[in-house]
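re: that chain from earlier
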Amino acid sequence: MSFFESITKKSRLKTAIKQTAEARSSEGSKADQLFKKVYQDYAEIVANEPVIAEALYNWGFTLLHQARTKPRDEAAKLYQDAIAKFSFCLPIEPAYLGAAIDGGVAYMELARVNAVEPNDSLYGRAQNYFEKANAIQAGSASYNLACIYGLRSDKEACLNALEISKGKGSLPVPADILADPDMGGVIYQDWFVAFMDSLNQETEPVAEIKEVVVEVAVPTEKTEVVEEAMVAAEPEAVVDAPVTEKTEVIEDDSVENAVVVEPEVVADASVAEKAEVDAAVNDSAVVEHKALVDEDAPVSEKIEVAVEVSGAVAQWKM
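^ sequence. v structure.
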């Protein structure tokens, strides 16, 4: 609240106090009109003060809980004090839901302590508070109203309030409803049993079946084929093997030498020199062919590699 608002409210408060003195000295209808005007002024002065409203509510809430721990006479006084705090809270903050609900609860518990009949005015005041709470938030106090109707054996009103509470999500759990002393007079009636059965059916857990999919990975076998061939004076050596589009050929230095080395042909070379050349080729031309073969792949082509050495032809077919 700003400084200006504080001064304005202070001035209005002084005016209301003077009008109160005038009302007290007046009689009849004039006095009633003055009192009514004064009450409205007081309500407007304290309105829109959330801190005051919150303090009053929590004060009443504390008194309500302390009353539950005390003997009958002392508890009744504490309940009345709590009700006063809630009743002052609502004019300041008319939409204070907690004050509306707990004000009705305090009246119900006071009625229970005093052992009055369900049609007593204390239950009527509790009903007014609960209806105010429902006006603030629909269904927030419908179960409390159902308790009052249950005490009065009003079947239709009780069931209707229970259904509203259920629909708004403010209904207690079934175990708490059955243990509520205010429902003691109706828990064995057919309509109430049917309502509770409907709650139990809705709250039964449903087993959820989940399909489990197991993926089995089938490893692809890679076969390493090692072929060793000796380049000699044989007509043709052929090895067939399936080859994929990607073929890894590893040739050691000796193979590379075998492919690249071509002995010079000398017209006048003697037979002995030719024999030496053939022996050198035979010693160095050991071929080790390694390829990764995909067994499932089709044979796409055959690759022919030919090396001509001293008139002899060595071929690899892959």
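Residues 222-317 form one domain.
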